[in-house]
């Protein structure tokens, strides 16, 4: 199994370095760095601590073991989050291994993304949203997943709505073009006539617009992100999901294009790197389709 060790934790981690010695790195990375600088500047000179001779060691970033598939937006979600939140993530490419006896023994659902963590009752956790919720809870990452019950409920609602309503349409509409197997029970999974499969795919594509608009009009409600001024875990989940629509040339509304660009701008490399894997795969399948046309 190929193993990729992620190097950078992104911009915010670097900015928070000074404060990181006293705090867990992930928390420090998630905090707004300008505040730290402002506080230091406001201190009168007399109160400033004497310069230390020994350099404070930056806190170790919490380790994260992640099994993933690069072309997948479910996986992209957790990969973006891990980078943006400042984890030291060791990524294992599970391509071709999800149904091996070893993988199935740990994860009978044979799904990625999957994290391994000794604190978990069964040692592993799958489902992208559950993984982000768990890691945010464990490391106090309120910037991505607010603690206040009402605010948190909106993030949860947006994620459940995505997984339960929007994603099945996106999968049905894009998986045939991506060359991914359909989820069991779908028309695309059955031995139905190709015309029926194509009908189901087109119907799913047409059905995307309504739930997509709900994220804009209801969940964002005039704010830059579902999370407010900063992208939350629900925003990461939504933006990653929309990446797949490029494979069918889905005409994203202007707000969605701007929203995705805004997330990428805010999260920088943390977003761009995993998105690059998904985009690269889409470019590859499109070039294959062109060649065989
Ligand atoms: N709802 C899940 C979906 C996970 C999922 O469908 N993972 C696929 C990749 S996109 C997978 O690992 N498939 C491998 C397999 O079924 O063997 C999530 O958000 O994590």
UniProtKB/TrEMBL annotation:
| Protein origin, superkingdom | Bacteria
Q: Where is the composition biased (Low complexity)?
A: 1-13, 21-53
> What's a GO biological-process term for it?
glutathione metabolic process
Which Pfam families does the record match to this protein?
GST_C_2, GST_N
Chain intervals for the UniProt region annotation (Disordered): 1-63
Annotated Basic residues bias: 54-63
An example of a GO molecular function for this protein is:
glutathione transferase activity
PANTHER family on file: GLUTATHIONE S TRANSFERASE D10, ISOFORM A-RELATED
Under the subunit heading, UniProt states: Homodimer.
Q: What is this protein called?
A: Glutathione S-transferase family protein
What is the source species?
Mesorhizobium jarvisii
Lineage, opening ranks:
Bacteria, Pseudomonadati, Pseudomonadota, Alphaproteobacteria, Hyphomicrobiales
